[in-house]
Design goal:
By secondary structure, the protein is an alpha+beta fold. It has one domain: Pnp Oxidase, Chain A (Roll), CATH 2.30.110.10. The chain is built from seven helices and eight strands, in the order βαββββαβαβααβαα. Strands 1, 2, 3, 4, 5, 6, 7 and 8 form an eight-stranded antiparallel beta sheet that branches. The longest helix is centred in the middle third of the chain and has 16 residues.
């Protein structure tokens, strides 16, 4: 990851927050016969060093990846266009250009596929609990008939990535003056509130 010092994020709680807020990460793995495999899928970070998810059995990612080489999960959270018109500096000297602000985490590690029904059920249950949390009437895996869930699990394969390296980047206008940063926060507040909120955390 290209990661200038001004944007480097190393705080464990912020890395976890970025991974939690990322709506659909991408898992990239080297294939046994060369090339790359890439799958968009929900992933759940379990501190300190585990990512879990699952894919359809028909998705060849689980069967064709090379377990002897590292895989990479890419998370992108708050992100968006930054207009030069939001910088107070535009009115002073005009030497401003557009950019793109974003928060991202790259998680590198060894991938393992699991065909064990109990482990896959635990993965599905944990992911469901994460995404149902906060709802007035959260749905639980146990709400469905046991035989129905067992049948559904036959079409899934669980994935576990043991993380060996976490790289975080929060490019949130830290290289601009405080006045310009506040200008971007105000500018994004209406059209991109998630980015505005992420920038406020960094002030």
């Amino acid at each position: 990851m290209y990661n200038p010092a001004a944007f480097e994020e190393t705080r464990p709680e912020e890395l976890a927050a970025i991974m939690r807020e990322a709506s659909l990460p991408v898992l990239i793995s080297p294939a046994r016969d060369g090339g790359l495999l890439a799958t968009h899928l929900p992933l759940l970070f379990q501190a300190p060093d585990r990512l879990i998810g699952h894919v359809a059995r028909a998705n060849l990612h689980w069967r064709d990846f090379d377990p002897a080489r590292e895989s990479l999960a890419v998370f992108t959270a708050a992100q968006g266009y930054v207009s030069p018109s939001w910088y107070p500096a535009k009115q002073v000297h005009g030497r401003v250009v557009p950019t793109w602000n974003y928060s991202a985490v790259h998680a590198t590690g060894r991938l393992r596929a699991t065909d064990d029904p109990e482990e896959t059920l635990a993965i599905v249950t944990a992911l469901t609990a994460r995404h149902e949390a906060g709802r007035a009437r959260p749905w639980h895996v146990s709400d469905a008939p046991e035989d129905y869930i067992a049948a559904q699990l036959k079409g899934l394969v669980g994935l576990v990535l043991t993380v060996t390296k976490l790289e975080g980047k929060a490019k949130l206008s830290q290289n601009r003056s405080l006045e310009d940063r506040r200008g971007v926060i105000e500018g994004t507040a209406e059209e991109n509130p998630a980015l505005s909120t992420a920038m406020k955390r960094g002030l």
